[in-house]
Fold each of these.
Amino acid sequence: MKMAINLKMMLDSLRYTNDSLEYAGIQDSVIDNKIREQFKKHHLVAATKIVAEIFPTIFSAVDDVNNILAPDYKLEVYVKNSADFQASCFPGVDNSISVVLNSGLIQLCSVDELRFVVGHEVGHFLFGHHLYPRVEEMQNQVEKLNILALLRAAEITADRSGFICVKNKENAFKAILKLATGLPDAYIRFDLSAYLRQSKELQNMGGDEYSLLDTHPACCTRMRALLWFDMSEVYYEWVAQGGCAPINSCELNKRVTRDLSLAIGFRLSEINKKEAGQALFWGVLSLFISDGCLSKAEQILLKHNFGESGMNMALDYIREFGPDAVINKFESILQSLRFVDKKTKKVLFENIEQFSKLAGGEISNIESVLKRATQLMNFGNESDR
Ligand SMILES: [Zn+2]
């Protein structure tokens, strides 16, 4: 892309750290041009294109966002006749970005609030969120929960991208409150701190585990994330605001991560930790059984590291299903950890590597187990580990 390097760097600074396939060590894919054409045709049939002649106010808001976030793209916005407060974004044809806004959403928002909404959607495109794996395609629950966490993280970045598009910051906060309630100005006396008490209340109650299944963070959590952003050096740089920002970007991301985790009661990290523990057990067993037998010394090591029950489970499993089934079991657990953060996977792999030194039998058998584990955990290349 010919996007100015400076703008590209500025945009990258908006990305919330956990919003990235890189976070899980996975490469992006691309969207075929044929699919883009199909989408455009669908919009031309089912929606109405925002042009300056018919919708001058909306068009000017769209034009502003186009210039701020994506001057090298052509932003094409469509309005769809629907009362749902929804918007979506997709890569368009010929270097364009296509955004669809439902009419209910437009009616609810002021022009400046629309800048936030459009900026948010364009952010989804610029940060490649349309390339993220689909939740429906995930094979198991742990994979699914981690992709959902990735999608919630993506909303944080998209909100930041909307935030830098508004003329008055308060309108970004108001847009979120309107999206949360579906209520227009007539019913709202905007009081940010009063609304944020809701997020504290949720945290004090230990978070909500069902939120693990949501594609979006709670609106009050999103609002807090924007407030942290407003105080950050990243934002100060974007708006060329003088003075010293209260928090640096590392602190910004730390606070957001904490809020997101608190909202679900830290349950995802518990689930991932448990799954990584399972993977370690089956990984070690795969290494030990790679020569076809579990020696006395290996049984003692299993007992020492995974308890008597772990050792008995290993023996029962091998007796019932045979040694080959062990590696299959290990591989299926590794599959479920694909989208877990790189750090967790790195620690797991290092632990497995340590155990590999204790396994008996042919070195080539052990190496093949390790190689398979590397591939399945999507480590990419060796140096990336
Ligand atoms: Zn979004």
Note: Confidence is low (pLDDT under 50) at residues 380-385.
Amino acid sequence: MQNKRILVTGAAGFIGSNMVEELRKNNSVVGIDNLSNTDTRFIEPFLKDGSLTFHKMDILDLDSLISLEPVDLVIHFAANSDVRGGSDNPQFDFDVNARGTLNVLEFMRRKDVPEMIFASSSTVYGEPSQLPTPENYGPYMPISTYGASKMAGEGFITAYSHYYGFRASIFRFANIVGRNSTHGVIFDFIRKLMKNKTELEILGDGTQRKSYMHVTDCVGSILFLHERIVNTDIFNLGNESTTSVVRIADEVVKQMGLKGVRYRFTGGIDGRGWKGDVKIAQLAIDRMISHGWKNKYSSDEAISIAVGEVLHQIHR
Ligand SMILES: NC(=O)c1ccc[n+]([C@@H]2O[C@H](COP(=O)([O-])OP(=O)(O)OC[C@H]3O[C@@H](n4cnc5c(N)ncnc54)[C@H](O)[C@@H]3O)[C@@H](O)[C@H]2O)c1
């Protein structure tokens, strides 16, 4: 992607900051974030060298959004990314992920923005009977309000795209891991083990198995595929392989140099980590591959690299 003026929402967050790092090399990048889930530490170098223009802004504030200059492309990452919190505060998922997405679409409509990239999620499928799950699997029955709000976001995007003639690439991510993450299983395990080096609490029964993708593959595949997609379309992004939660725990323990750590499983309803947790998630990635993208790292490799990266950042 080159010579575009690009707006990234959620620019200071985990995937957003990695995306900005890649885009700023050949494009003019404007980032917004309300900094509710992070601060500016991951984008500080780009603010210093002037390769990113940043505004602290909430996507729920439509007036502020539409005060922004028009752009060639919107990459919409801002979201409540806390899947677990949904059962305690379902309204919040609706507000940020559904209504917030609608506001971003209004900005696009009013400023005639021709293209959009949206971060959706495997959680829209709920607990599919088909694994790996292809993009055309249905019916969607999300089991979390996060998944439901992403599904709503997708629907508004395809409708706006139809009404107003812009092109949108919707990407349903598996679990993304790597540097700059401030949430998720690796981050959780490291924090817990820093507090208690003898015992690790693992949510669920330990049999959860999901496909993990390294953030560099996530960012790379999004940019690669968006350039090759002609119409508004939906793609799964993930890996063919999966990694169990116990394997992740083993990798964290190993890289932290710990010995004899006891694992304590919380059990939970049906062995899930929390209400709304999908125990086994594996997306079919045939479309991603058939369009020419090949991941650099498998699910296990992504985990192993990400554990090293997160440990390095925590100890810095
Ligand atoms: N990380 C994953 O494994 C994963 C999986 C599936 C989908 N996604 C989606 O990818 C996107 C990026 O996720 P992430 O993991 O980088 O999460 P993140 O929480 O690190 O990034 C989201 C950013 O959005 C910001 N934000 C939240 N509410 C906002 C608001 N109202 N206005 C402006 N900014 C706001 C947060 O401060 C944060 O910096 C999200 O849309 C998320 O739902 C992530």
Note: The chain has two domains: 5-176+214-237, 179-210+241-315.
Amino acid sequence: MKDQTVRNKTTDLSQTEKILEKYKNVRGALIPILQMVQAEYGYLPEPVVDLISERLHVSTHEIIGVATFYAQFHLKPRGQHIIKVCCGTACHVKGAKKVLEKLSKTLEVSTGMTTRDNVFTLEEVACLGACSLAPVMMVDEDIHGKLAPDTVATVIEEIKESGFPGTA
Ligand code: FES
């Protein structure tokens, strides 16, 4: 992902132009175009959606419909680190809701939203496949298990201190 920090900046459409050029004569290329655009910008910025709409002669409504149907697409900027809190059955029983609430309070962000500094996006997901460690959250590719509301702030601090770019 080359640029996740385009929020509040003018969107550079040159990469979108290149992607559209590549698929100029390809029918049914909307999804690969959206995938490539998202890989470029980290999400699907509105001006990009407008440009795709214009070039493919597909309404923005239809593009947004596709983007919201597939979980892989995002219409809002996402943070440098994605926190996915599991709310599957095992995690729910073990207190995932309280973990999620504590994370939301600690990061000052609602579920599905990104922190003001663009560092963390907080999401709620179904079973992460690590039920024996419930309650569980995934930060980027790392699983953190047996969480408690009292320990999540420590986990966040450790992530910041671990030298991830943008969190030190
Ligand atoms: S229910 Fe949370 S990891 Fe399975």
Note: The first strand starts at residue 81 and ends at 86.
Amino acid sequence: MDTTRKIPEVSFFDFLKRALEIVKNPLPFHHDNFEKKGDTFILNLGFQKKILFSRNADFLKYALQKNQRNFTKSEVQTKDVAKYLGKGLLTSEGDLWKRQRKLIQPTFHKKFLTELLGIMKHTINTELSKIPVEKKINVEPYFGRLAFQVVAKSLFSGEVEEQTISRLQEIVEASQKMLVRELRQPYLGLWFKYGGLLDKHFAMVREGRELIKGIIYRRKASGDRKGDLLDLLLEAKYEDGANMEEEQMIDEIMILFTAGHETTSNALSFTCQLLAKHPEYQDKIVEEHLSVGEETDMMQTMMSQRITKQVLEEAMRLYPPAYFIDRMNLRQDTFDGMKIAPKTPLLFSVIEIHRHKDLWEKPMEFWPERFDGPPNQYSNQYFPFGAGPRMCIGNNFAMFEMQMVIAEVIRRFRILPKTDPIEILPLITLKPRKAFLEFEGRPEN
Ligand code: HEM
């Protein structure tokens, strides 16, 4: 008996009808299709191009974990992103990825991260002091800078001039913007190429690589040990005893900057917007701060910040910075009776899984206490950091950083909303659109 079932298809005509709206924000179109066609559908983009969309959490786990060998990263990551950032963890595949992941994974172990907490805290305090009070501001640039500085200082401690770090941030952000333009406006490809825009961005990337090369060179020449990530990367050895080559290390550092700053900045902006709308959770965080206090063991303090952590988890459920995870199957595959032709581009909608009415009680409500259970209670339906072997290597780093930031923001300020409702801007990551807020100094500070 043939148990295969046909995957419902959304026609090219349906796509064309909403093309203008899709360029601005494709998420309502995807949502309507999921509601009409079910948790998995194929979108026909014309010219023989089709993409499979899914908000089936089991399917995501199948592709990212159970049968991950048959699902590679998409060309967007391995070619388009790699064109700017090189072949680091996020953009590599196969043996190169395996070798690099094995080498770098221990660097992000909780034990080593504990040593970075002091650097992180100092950087966070410095950056939060720059937030203007009693003024309507867009928080994004503040958190963007903060998140970049935290990665930069964790990598290079304090020995790199501010100017160099700011330039690196400009370069990383400009190349991300250019990539979005290339992906969203492929019909302008020739103009980008022959109008000199691509060359200009590649020149900037080369400049960024030279800056990083100089930092590595000076560290090696000084023979100093700073106890930062750069030390750990320089000391790490492959199984054959060799160290990472310089060009590969530059690729990895470019990737850490890119993967680690915008995602974190977005999550922080959304969290503050949610806290502004739900001031009762600001009060709960203050109460928690007073009861936990500042233990000398920073790791212990963070373990005790249960509410702060739950608020962040809930914010990333509703607004996952990595709102899509993309893959391509190498060979034909079958999931739940659905036959997937070889080399089908697949997009797993993390935001739809995180808001699925069959998976979550009151899915659209901000209700952080839903996370007040065992740590893995939602491991089959909650994927802010992905799943399987390619899961985010910086997840603990990001959680520690964000907990420190939110606890400190709320200790210093009362946050007032200045835009309602929260609006999204889905680019490579899910960003907030116009994250306007006001920060009012707390009288007790
Ligand atoms: C809230 C913050 C963050 C979010 C939501 C996030 C999310 C993710 C997700 C979903 C993936 C998997 C992508 C896929 O499977 O295609 C990933 C991979 C990755 N992330 Fe993060 N990330 C965050 C912060 C960070 C930080 C702080 C760093 C480093 C400092 C980092 C470094 C990486 C790297 C290197 C990879 C590639 C791992 C591999 O393929 O082996 N991320 N991240």
Note: The domain at 55-441 is CATH 1.10.630.10 (Cytochrome p450).
